Every structure is written in structure tokens, then in C-alpha cells.
Amino acid sequence: MHTQGVGKHQTDIGRMEQTATKIRMFQPNLVPGLLQTAEYARRAIELATDAQDVGLGVARRMTRQQILYDRGKSFEFLITEGALRWRIAPADAHAGQLHHLASLATLENLSLGVIPWHAQVGAHQTTMFCLFDDALAYVELHNGEVATEDQQDIAHYAAVFAALKDSAVTGEDAIDELQRIAQTLERP
Hints:
The protein is of the alpha/beta class. The protein has a single domain, classed as Endonuclease, Chain A (2-Layer Sandwich), CATH 3.30.870. The protein is 46% helix and 18% strand. It has a 6-stranded mixed beta sheet with strand order 3-2-1-4-5-6, with helices on both faces. It is globular. The model has no long low-confidence stretch (mean pLDDT 91).
């Protein structure tokens, strides 16, 4: 749990992001924070905590997203189709989130991979993790997080990321997948 508040937690994650030049993230359950719209972020934070500083947490998460436009950094995101379909917001807000992802997927320094339900995966991973360069692995748990600089742990998560990436669709195929899912939400 974020005992020091959501706002501080967002600041701490932002520091890790600022020091890295290559960020790789796998997210099986939700859209990653760096890719969230403000409305989606609010709902995600509210589901994860009963903290009183949800608004501050959302604001700091939105501020963190400026890093996506730093061409000196590269980002690789892998998201499961289940995460994209897991609706935590009203249909129109969720569809807006998916369109936002499709837009971000066009950034030159950002790779977005979608692991479709029909894909055969080569790794078992049920929790979100993020690799900051080859220096830090950050694993989010339901009630907290674990960060490790142990090279064996980092190598393990890098291998899992590579195996999951092999199951993902990227580029235009990922954008098509996002638009297909968004269309199901936009139907009357």
C-alpha cells in the first residue's frame, strides 16, 4: 500500500523514470499509468487505494507523462487484451482511453505491443513489472511493490519480457486491435 500517499508514490516512480533511458513495462491488468487519460487514471487510483490524495496522484501521474516526449528515452509497453477490455470507467471514457493509446503508439520512441487473447504466450506472468534500463526491476503487487537491482532478477524479468513480446502484435496491428476493441464500446 502507498502509506505515504498516492501523490508521493507518483513522484517516486517519476524519479525512477527520469533516471532511465530505456523503460520496458508489462501490464496484464490495466493500462499503464504513463499511458492513461486523466479520467482513467482517477478510476484506477480510486480502485487501488482509499487515499485522500487521489486528485494529487492523478495530477502527478499526468505530469509524469511528459517524459514520453523525451526523444532521448525509449519506451516499450506490452499490454494484454484482457487489460484493454477490463473496463474500470464508463464505456465512452474507456473508448477514449483506447483511442489515446492508439495515438501514443505513433510516437517514434514508443513501442506498444498488445498480447491478444488468441496468442500463445511463452511466459507466465500475472503481475505488472517494469525494467528501468538494465539497472532496476520494479514489480507491482496488490498491496505494494518490490524494486530490485539484483542482476539475476533483472535478467529474469528481461527474459520474461522478451518471451511476452514475441506473443504481441505491434505497430499498425496493435493500433488496429485497439480500434477494434474501442468500436465494441462505442456501439449503441
